[in-house]
Amino acid sequence: MFSIGDRIVYPMHGAGVIKDIEKIEILGDKKEYFVMKMPIGDMKVMVPVDSIEEVGVRQVVDEDAMPRVIKILRGSKTAMPQNWNRRYRANMDRIRSGDIFEIAAVVRNLMILDKEKGLSTGERKMLNSAKQMLVSEMVLVCSMEVEETESLIAESVEIFDEEDSVDEEEVTEEFTNGEKENSTTI
Fold first, then answer.
1. What CA–CA distance (Å, rounded) separates 181 from 72?
2. What span, in angstroms and rounded, lies between the C-alpha atoms of 169 and 41?
3. What is the SS3 assignment for 20?
4. Which residues pair with 48 in a beta bridge?
5. Which single residue of 14, 29, 79, 110 could bond 133 by disulfide (Cβ 3.0 to 4.6 Å)?
6. How far, in Å, CA of 92 to CA of 184, rounded?
7. What does the DSSP 8-state code read for residue 64?
8. Is the dihedral of CA 16, 154, 105, 81 positive or negative?
9. pTM for this one?
10. What phi, psi does 40 have (nearest 5°)?
11. How far apart are CA 186 and CA 167, in angstroms?
């Protein structure tokens, strides 16, 4: 269970710090909520305490995970469906997982695709949301400023080339190392 001061990730919203636990009554039903302060945009998110497992709330990753995140961002774009609708659904599934490595792969793929041929409005919104989720966790893990983190992400994707690209099987094997079954390749 989490407590005040813990740094957590709420899938589809990003990472934040639990600042308080509030009891709120809605339609006669009293529930406890974690009050999260997000590092981006002075936003406050309330997460029902009794459903944190259902929604996939987790602690932020350790700083040891950051080199792998950067390696993924520097990798080459992975194969994605040509149909934007299918690509959108596949990317949304990866984002919903709340996994920082999956989100980094979505950010990388969409940033590269944007440079190659542009993004649809829906994919542009998805890229912005995924970037915000990635930035929020990196800010908390690395104690960096938001702008500095955004620049690091942009620079990492910019400098990719085939020689520095990620070995898909190596990353997937490392990722599935008993921690997550049925994962997609990064």
1. 19
2. 37
3. strand
4. 33
5. 14
6. 13
7. G
8. positive
9. 0.80
10. -110, 125
11. 9
Q: Which domains does the chain have, with CATH numbers?
A: 7-59 (2.40.10.170), 63-176 (1.20.58.1290)
100-158 pLDDT, tens digit per residue, is 999 999 999 999 999 998 898 999 999 999 999 999 999 999 999 999 999 999 999 98
Helix-helix angle 100-117:84-96, to 10 degrees: 150
Contact indicator for 90, 80 with CB cutoff of 8 Å: yes
Cβ neighbour number for residue 174 with a 10 Å cutoff:
13
Whether the Cβ atoms of residue 126 and residue 80 lie closer than 8 Å to each other: no
Tokens 């500095």 sit at which residue?
A: 148
pLDDT tens column, 1-18 = 899 999 999 998 999 999
Q: Determine the Cα–Cα distance for residues 133 and 127; give it in Å rounded to an integer.
A: 10
Cα–Cα distance between 65 and 171 in angstroms, integer?
12
Q: In percent, how much of the chain has pLDDT > 70?
A: 85
Pairing type for strands 44-48 and 58-59 reads unpaired
> For residue 175, is pLDDT > 50?
no
Q: What is the pLDDT of residues 22-69, one digit of tens each?
A: 999 989 999 999 999 998 887 899 999 999 989 999 999 999 999 999
Contact (Cβ atoms closer than 8 angstroms) between residue 18 and residue 35: yes
